[in-house]
Design goal:
Elements (H helix, E strand, L loop, with lengths): L2 E10 L8 E10 L2 E7 L11 E4 L4 E4 L1 E3 L11 H8 L4 H6 L4 H10 L2 H16 L3 E7 L6 H17 L3 E9 L10 H17 L5 E6 L6 H13 L5 E4 L7 H7 L4 E4 L5 H10 L2 E4 L1 H6 L8 H7 L3 E3 L13 H12 L3 H7 L2 H6 L16 E4 L5 H5 L6 E6 L2 E2 L2
Parallel strand pairs: 1-4, 1-5, 6-7, 7-8, 8-9, 9-10, 10-11, 11-12, 12-13
Antiparallel strand pairs: 1-2, 2-3, 5-14, 14-15, 15-16
Helix pairs in contact: 4-5, 6-7, 8-9, 12-13
Length: 400
């Protein structure tokens, strides 16, 4: 096991309350883990290292976590963007056969190599801004064959790239055309697919879209019951376009996270707080769909619900590939503080994926960290349209 020393840095550790900055800080990495973090002057005197890196006073933060993406898909939906600018709503487009269904058709038509090439390009764009862990949801296959293919591609990303990829089965994303008028039958099918997908090692968690244009709370509960019977954690697209009570339902099932949440009720906030469920806010979709109803950030704060941010990269409602831009949007649209925003893509982003071994700079944590060309961490949320990422270390190995 190799030991390396990273010193002469400004460390924003996030390992407590506030930024938890250490000026003139140092980190000792042993193998894939952080073995020591503290002031450079307090380094152990008998320390022996295989390599030493002088960071020249640069800022270092934990590696970024994008806890909600849909990176695997075919085609694009630029025409729908035009339609929305002409007055059509996201819901109207979906009910007319566009939206998710159009991406399903393009994804089914693409072969696995094409899907992997597109997903790899997107993942590399996120990695270039310091993302070291991300989630990839399926949900554009909507059949056992095509959902499995999308999840295999997501798994392949984590093998081919220096990146942790968590896979989430979102087969309950939309009703495929072959099940028109038979939503309950489709949910039956989804529940039957889960054991096979799990046996193939393709699923880390299960998600659903609980909404008027997707699936009812009762249908969502059936998916959750099937997932929990297999020991799989659950997540939910909840309260994006209306209040369906999905967040409270998901919290009762011990959900890792509920995502979107613009229409979240007080009851939903209380349920999430009691369950320890993370609120994942998605400012990219809020912006791109020109939404006006804000998620109840102050209520979430008051209740002590952890708040994460994510890119929600997808071809229909959030086609951006910049997690740093989401920091700025989270502050500008949702009035998060810069510290809350950074915690949202580190500590709380990791928690939304059920990962407790990353998101802070502390002994025992995975050695995922980013070296930035800025002086203070609040600059990461302040600026946009440029990339200050300088170096990226994943599991103790420099990859950028």
């Amino acid at each position: 096991m190799t030991t390396s020393l990273w010193r002469h840095a400004r460390l924003t550790t996030l390992a407590g309350t506030g930024w938890c900055d250490i000026d003139h800080g140092a980190m000792v990495v042993q193998g894939e883990r952080l073995a020591w973090v503290g002031p450079d002057a307090d380094l152990p005197r008998d320390l022996q290292v295989d390599a030493e890196h002088d960071l020249g006073g640069a800022l270092v933060t934990p590696g970024l976590v994008d806890c909600h993406t849909h990176l695997v898909y075919g085609g694009h939906r630029a025409r729908e963007f035009e339609l929305r600018l002409q007055g059509a709503t996201y819901e109207e487009i979906a009910r007319a056969g566009g939206g998710i269904r159009s991406t399903v058709a393009a994804t089914r038509a693409a072969d696995e190599a094409t899907l992997l090439a597109g997903a790899t390009q997107r993942a590399r764009a996120l990695m270039a801004e310091g993302v070291t862990t991300l989630e990839v949801k399926s949900g554009y296959g909507l059949s056992l064959e095509h959902e499995a293919r999308c999840l295999r591609v997501a798994r392949a990303l984590g093998t081919a790239l220096p990146l942790t990829v968590r896979t989430t089965c979102l087969a309950a994303h939309a009703l495929p055309p072959e099940f028109d008028g038979r939503a309950d039958a489709y949910i039956d099918a989804v529940c039957q697919w889960l054991p096979a997908l799990q046996q193939q090692g393709l699923v880390d968690a299960v998600d659903a879209f609980c909404e008027r244009i997707a699936f009812s709370p009762a249908q969502t509960q059936r998916v959750f019951d099937a997932a929990r019977a297999l020991g799989l954690p659950v997540k939910l697209h909840a309260e994006q376009l209306s209040d369906q009570g999905g967040a409270a339902l998901a919290a009762r099932s011990g959900a890792l996270s509920c995502d979107h949440l613009e229409w979240l009720s007080d009851d939903g906030v209380r349920a999430m707080a009691a369950a320890g469920t993370v609120a994942v806010l998605l400012p990219g979709a809020f912006y791109f769909l020109r939404e006006t109803r804000l998620p109840p950030v102050q209520a979430l704060r008051d209740a002590g619900v952890p708040i994460a941010l994510a890119s929600d990269h997808n071809p229909g409602s959030s086609p951006g590939l910049s997690l740093l831009l989401m920091l700025n949007m989270g502050c500008t649209f949702f009035r998060l503080t810069p510290e809350e925003a950074l915690r949202g893509v580190t500590v709380h982003g990791a928690r939304a994926l059920g990962l407790r071994d990353r998101g802070t700079l502390a002994p025992g944590q995975r050695a995922d960290f980013v070296v930035w060309n800025v002086a203070q961490a609040n600059e990461l949320a302040y600026g946009f349209g440029h990339n200050p990422c300088h170096r990226v270390v994943v599991a103790g190995e420099e990859c950028l």
